[in-house]
Amino acid sequence: MPGDEVAAIADALALLLGAAAVNVTWEAAGSQQPPTSFGQPGTSPAHGLASSLTATGGGRCVTGTLSATGGTITIDARFADEGAPEGGGAPVTTADMPPLTRALAAAMDQADVAVLLIDGHARLMFANAAARAILDRGGGLRRVGAHIAAARPTDTLRLHAAIARVVDGASDKEPPVAITRPDRRPLLVAIVASGIACTHPAECAAIVHVVDPEQAPQVSIEPTCRLYGLSPVEARLASLLADGISLAGAAKAMHVRPQTARSYLKQIFLKTDTHRQAELVWLLLRSAVRTPQPNNAA
C-alpha cells in the first residue's frame, strides 16, 4: 500500500474516531521491507511521520489489527483524557482580528460563494458566512475539531488528500472534489494555493471554494431597473422574467392580462435598448448585484 494512502487513512481515522492522535502501520505479507507507518499527531494532518503515538501526550490508547489483501493494517489511537484540551478548534472569529482584517472578513461574508482558509497544517482558519451555513447544515461537509470533513469517509479521504497536496506545495490547484449528499446533487470543492509565501505553518496556505449547485445565488436587479428608469410595475415584470418566469406566468403573478404585460414589456425594451425577452434577461442578470444567501437557507 503506498505511503500516501496510509497517511490519508490515518488522517481520516483521527477525524472519524474523534481521536487525539492516530498511527496507522501497513505491513505487506512476506515482504522484507520495513512496515510503512504514518501518524496523525494531535490535530495536524497526516502529511508527516509521527515518531510515536506517545509523543502527543497522555490519554487512553487503543490498538487494533486488521487483515487486508496483501498484508496487515495496525491502528493505534490515542483519546484525550476527559476534559483535556486538544489542539485546534473552531476557526478564528472576527473578534480576534485586527480592524482591517475584520473589514476584509466582513466583505467575504457578503460573498455568495462559500470560502474557507486553510493553514499549513490543513486546519480551518476562517469560513465566511456562506461556508458556515454549509458546515452548520452538515449534509455534505461538516466541521470536525479543527478540520473539515465529509459525511462519507471515502469523500473525506479524497478531500484531505487534495488539501494535503496543495498545502505541501505538490499542486497549485487540484481538480474539484465532489462531496456526495443524500438526495441532493454533490457539493463541488475546489482547493487552490493561497499564493502567499508562508513563513509559519499558522499562515494561510490554501483557499477552499465550495459550490452548492442547488443553491443559486441571489441577485438584485433593482439597481439596474433604476438605472434604466423602469417604473415600479415595469421593474416588477423585469424581476419576474429574470427569475425565469414566462411572460404569461408573470402576468398571472401581477394580476394583469397577458396583453397588458406585453405592453409593459415593450416599454422595458425601449428603455433598455433591447429587442427580445432573452436579450433583456441576459442584460438584467449580467448587470445584477449579487447578494449573499441567508444563513438559514436550506
TrEMBL record:
<dbReference type="GO" id="GO:0006355">
    <property type="term" value="P:regulation of DNA-templated transcription"/>
</dbReference>
<feature type="region of interest" description="Disordered">
    <location>
        <begin position="30"/>
        <end position="51"/>
    </location>
</feature>
<feature type="compositionally biased region" description="Polar residues">
    <location>
        <begin position="30"/>
        <end position="43"/>
    </location>
</feature>
<protein>
    <recommendedName>
        <fullName>HTH luxR-type domain-containing protein</fullName>
    </recommendedName>
</protein>
<feature type="domain" description="HTH luxR-type">
    <location>
        <begin position="227"/>
        <end position="284"/>
    </location>
</feature>
<dbReference type="InterPro" id="IPR016032">
    <property type="entry name" value="Sig_transdc_resp-reg_C-effctor"/>
</dbReference>
<dbReference type="InterPro" id="IPR036388">
    <property type="entry name" value="WH-like_DNA-bd_sf"/>
</dbReference>
<dbReference type="GO" id="GO:0003677">
    <property type="term" value="F:DNA binding"/>
</dbReference>
<dbReference type="InterPro" id="IPR000792">
    <property type="entry name" value="Tscrpt_reg_LuxR_C"/>
</dbReference>
